[in-house]
Write the structure tokens for this entry.
Amino acid sequence: MLQYETLNEYRALMYARKLKDMFGKNAQLVCREIGDGNLNLVFQITDKLSGTSIIVKQALTYARVVGESWPLTLDRARIESQALIIQHSICPGFVPKVYHYDPIMAVTVMEDLSNYLIMRKGLAARKRYPHFARHLGVYLARTLYLTSDFALPSQVKKKKAAQFTNPEMCKISEDLIFTDPYFNSETNQFNPLAAERIEEIWNNNPLKLEVAKLKAGFLTHAEALIHGDLHTGSIMVSEEGTKVIDPEFSFYGPVGFDIGVVFGNLLLSFVSHGGHTQDAPERNYQAYLLATIEQIWGYFEQTFRELWEKESKERMTIVPGLLDSYLLHVLEDCAGYAGCEMIRRIIGLAHVSDLESIADPNLRAEGEKLALSIGQKLVLERRQIQDIKDVTCRVSEIAGYGTNQ
Amino acid sequence: MLQYETLNEYRALMYARKLKDMFGKNAQLVCREIGDGNLNLVFQITDKLSGTSIIVKQALTYARVVGESWPLTLDRARIESQALIIQHSICPGFVPKVYHYDPIMAVTVMEDLSNYLIMRKGLAARKRYPHFARHLGVYLARTLYLTSDFALPSQVKKKKAAQFTNPEMCKISEDLIFTDPYFNSETNQFNPLAAERIEEIWNNNPLKLEVAKLKAGFLTHAEALIHGDLHTGSIMVSEEGTKVIDPEFSFYGPVGFDIGVVFGNLLLSFVSHGGHTQDAPERNYQAYLLATIEQIWGYFEQTFRELWEKESKERMTIVPGLLDSYLLHVLEDCAGYAGCEMIRRIIGLAHVSDLESIADPNLRAEGEKLALSIGQKLVLERRQIQDIKDVTCRVSEIAGYGTNQ
């Protein structure tokens, strides 16, 4: 193709047919659009003869948000495909394989994951995934450590940081996560039944000060190639496997951000389950979610420590105490960013289905207010946090479970 | 020129003659090499007819250090000229004007400053410059604030950060400032009479841990377009004016670094004056140096606060407390980087003439050990520092002057 044109099912099928080494000569291809069509088009193309299938993903030039058109850079398709390739090389099992990237069409052709389910949906159905915490902890440690200054020669890291300069996508996060929710902004959308609590947040200067510091870290701390949008809709799970998708917000940012966004979304699931009734299965599932957070951190820390021991290129990594001090800094950031993610999903433009699916607005407001309280506490008290239990205990306390769940 | 060739006085003169709009038709040009010829060639070209003069500066492909040839990227000439152009537009009086940049020849043609003296030489001669503290404070505030995320739209800042990716030059600083001096490295060079004190530093794990954290900040905190090598040899002074030159180490780094390097070098001058005798004029000059540090910070802070009030584009800058908290963070970094600069100039590869010029090695060792003690204290106690006086009082204390000088 010589210029960008929007694909449809027919064009995507024709596009796939022309790809080299993808399908056999006699392939009987069928195509199906399977995306939500908000930012990107996602086509699944299957050869009925062999059963082989691939994904053809195309970035759209706009986002359909609140009924309006919002122009978006196509460069995010480059960022996404290049991040996937790096992450796949570092962490092969946990990221889809990229077969082809087309800069003009903003198309990435990659591994089909249709036997996986979006994590957020699994959480809503109260599913438990026995390997998820280990997989995600390892994914986080490997993708973050191995793209950092600890593991890469500083020149290589700086060139990668320049390559992953992602100004337009970062601007979306800067506004929607760290700014708009803290003022009475036009982009905000919230449940009127939580309005009083939200006005308290707008008037809470100590909270806004801490959020401003976390935003400054997001703007300036080029620690590792982060995913940049690691909510539970960017994670696909099955009984056996875990895949992290959609790194179009990827850039060199703070290591604690990805982990914090995962935790924030697990906690949004937590509050959504508390929002229905107080029955035992729900409490059990909430306990499972907190245990999952503890386990993710545990596997992250264990893997990070192993990598530090074996893979460090940076000479100062041999200095006693640096690893402990760095992990504490990551945990502090992680708690802060988890809090920011929770708050913005209640007040800001982009909400989560975990809570939106609660039909009764009063019940939903209960969950939303609990999310705001947990988020606020994590932001304000992140410097007191010494251990992942200091995070989960705070959540239990606010949710009224005492410190032992 | 179609390819790089090293200039000499004749070639530099021919080069200057071809520049458009620089000299009149009948100009009578003379050329003189005035650089130290270590990293760059610096030619002064004067029209004897009009008296007009310019500087033609060419980056060499190597550095002559310890008699060896050390390959160096020519891209630093691009970095230097582009940084000078930005700094001149932000801070016209305090940076030489660039007339022309030639990427193939790695040549920058700029304003001649031959009526200015290198600051380090003025300090050695115990000169006092009545406007220097104000000029430098304003230069630091304007160049740092106006290239930061506070003043620039985040997309613009990110593109500038990518443009000023400067991996080779940063690597030199990472090694020579933050790493080599803390181990028994081959590049180190030091006075054997200070060896015992230096071994204490190599065995001081708490110090090395704090240096490792400061190094991590240098590697990852892309706060502003910093000069990157703001020692007193990069500052030129006259009775009336101050010019900051040679930003070939420029990149997006921590705001506290530039200020810290200036302070570190003023304190290296401080210890050099204490290294001779204990007479009153020397003590007076040392008091002048400490007062200068306090004044630079004072003007920096005042100007930074004014800019924050008037020029902020970042919306979170209206949050109460953010400015105070940010300035405290800068002061903390500044103290730490000042300490690192002092230590590396005693143990590492690149020394300063302030101390090297002391002929008696015993007397020199006294100054060097004092520099190490001050540097170490600033690194280790930087988090207790709340005010610039907390820096200067610590210096006075260690130098045995009590807290009131």
Remarks:
- The mean pLDDT of chain B is 94.
- The longest helix of chain B spans residues 280-311.
- The interface with chain A takes residues 149, 154-155, 157-159, 161-162, 165-168, 170-171, 174, 178-179, 182-183, 205-206, 208-209, 211-213, 215-216, 219-223, 315-316, 319-322, 325-326 of chain B (CB under 8 Å).
